[in-house]
Design a protein that fits this description.
Elements: H1 17-30, E1 54-61, E2 67-75, E3 86-95, H2 98-117
Length: 118
């Protein structure tokens, strides 16, 4: 890992989903990548899953207007792959342009990946 890849010192250990999203919002603000409509938010303070396969950020186009950037994880139900994986959505943010959504999702993925290295 290089210093360019190390975009945060945040570690997942002992934190909640709310902690992760708050840290992610701060990281995006520092990098001037705040969503135009609303930031990532979470109801409650659920603990982060302890076992998961991947942390993921992705964009979906809204049905009426805008683009939603989701962050979450994929967890296996069993080690043999007999049951389908489970998607756990941590939260989402909203923006209006596909370009903005793509830039934000890319930086979110960089952040999520760096949290795994900490």
């Amino acid at each position: 890992m290089t210093s360019i890849e190390q975009v945060t010192n945040f570690s997942l250990s002992g934190h909640t989903v709310s902690d992760l999203l708050q840290e992610l919002n701060g990281h995006l603000a520092i990098n001037c990548l705040q969503p135009e409509e609303y930031d990532f938010s979470c109801c409650g303070s659920d603990p982060l899953p302890t076992k998961f396969s991947h942390l993921i950020a992705f964009v979906v186009e809204g049905t009426n207007e805008g683009f939603y950037i989701h962050v979450g994880c994929i967890s296996r139900q069993d080690k043999f792959g007999l049951k389908p994986p489970i998607w756990t959505d941590f939260g989402y943010a909203k923006t209006y342009s596909p370009e903005s959504a793509y830039r934000i999702a890319t930086e979110c993925q960089r952040f999520l990946t760096a949290t795994l290295w900490n």
